[in-house]
């Protein structure tokens, strides 16, 4: 499957459904072997397992300054290879990425993906909060560009 433009769509199931699915649409120059995988969630707002979108929280999760950024793989930098990783992951109530939720759009060098995953495992975020101050899990979608400057 070949995509043409650079857009992403987030499809959210109804509150009673049991999954959130992110689907890539029209992404320039990439060949998708599969869509983003689905992420299981609970249907009730009262459980600690509920995953919120950024638009649903009063204070979105944010990377803490000084947290680790992905390291450009040396062998790719030496060869002048650039790339982009679009990552999807969930930040828990302690400000850490839940490793099992990490997923990326196919089509970039796996060494870039590994660099992003390794960095996110060490990155600290401020957790998302609801208007009542309760910390909650939040779905994040973030691009990581590897450019030689």
Tell me about this structure.
It contains two helices and ten strands, in the order βββββαββαβββ. The protein has 149 residues and is mainly beta. The protein has a single domain, classed as TolA/TonB C-terminal domain, CATH 3.30.2420.10. Strands 4, 6, 7, 9 and 10 form a five-stranded mixed β-sheet that branches. A three-stranded antiparallel β-sheet has the order 1-2-3, with no helix packed on it. The longest helix has 13 residues. It is elongated and about 50 Å long. The protein starts with 6 loop residues before the first strand and ends with a strand. The N terminus is likely disordered.
What's the topology here?
Layout: E1 7-12, E2 19-25, E3 38-40, E4 51-52, E5 62-63, H1 74-78, E6 83-91, E7 103-104, H2 110-122, E8 125-126, E9 128-129, E10 135-146
Key descriptive features of the protein:
149 residues; mainly beta; TolA/TonB C-terminal domain; five-stranded mixed β-sheet; three-stranded antiparallel β-sheet; 2 helices; 32% strand; elongated; disordered N terminus
């Amino acid at each position: 499957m070949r995509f043409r433009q650079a857009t992403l769509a987030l499809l959210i199931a109804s509150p009673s459904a049991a999954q959130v699915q992110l689907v890539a649409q029209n992404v320039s120059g990439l060949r998708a072997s599969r869509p983003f995988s689905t992420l299981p969630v609970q249907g009730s707002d009262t459980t600690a397992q509920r995953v919120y979108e950024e638009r649903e929280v009063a204070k979105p999760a944010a990377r803490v300054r000084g947290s680790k950024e992905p390291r450009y793989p040396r062998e790719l930098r030496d060869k002048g290879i650039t790339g982009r990783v679009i990552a999807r992951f969930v930040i828990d109530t302690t400000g850490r990425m839940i490793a099992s939720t990490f997923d990326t759009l196919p089509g970039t060098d796996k060494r870039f993906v590994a660099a992003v995953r390794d960095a996110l495992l060490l990155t600290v975020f401020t957790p998302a909060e609801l208007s009542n101050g309760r910390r909650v899990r939040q779905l994040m979608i973030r691009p990581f560009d590897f450019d030689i400057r």
